[in-house]
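Figure 3 (text version): structure tokens given as input.
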């Protein structure tokens, strides 16, 4: 059974790439401040994973991940693997 959600054009959501601006528009103010500080080091927005209790922002720099939680707390050593 295929559990991957589909968008309106029938593509799997995980294969749809959002632009940095689209991702940026979904960050809260605390996440924007934290992300801005990571941009200075060269990190790029990669994804936002939202749940009912949190919204995690994933960023990458040379294949190394960082995350930001909904409170703007940065984790530069998250226990997570990300697709590029």
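Below: residues designed for each position.
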């Amino acid at each position: 059974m295929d559990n991957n959600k589909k968008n309106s054009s029938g593509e799997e959501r995980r294969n749809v790439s959002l632009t940095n601006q689209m991702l940026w528009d979904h960050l809260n103010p605390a996440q924007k401040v934290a992300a801005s500080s990571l941009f200075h080091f060269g990190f790029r927005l990669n994804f936002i994973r939202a749940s009912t209790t949190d919204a995690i922002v994933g960023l990458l720099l040379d294949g190394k991940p960082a995350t930001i939680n909904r409170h703007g707390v940065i984790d530069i050593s998250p226990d997570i693997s990300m697709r590029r």
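The helical segments are 20-24, 29-39.
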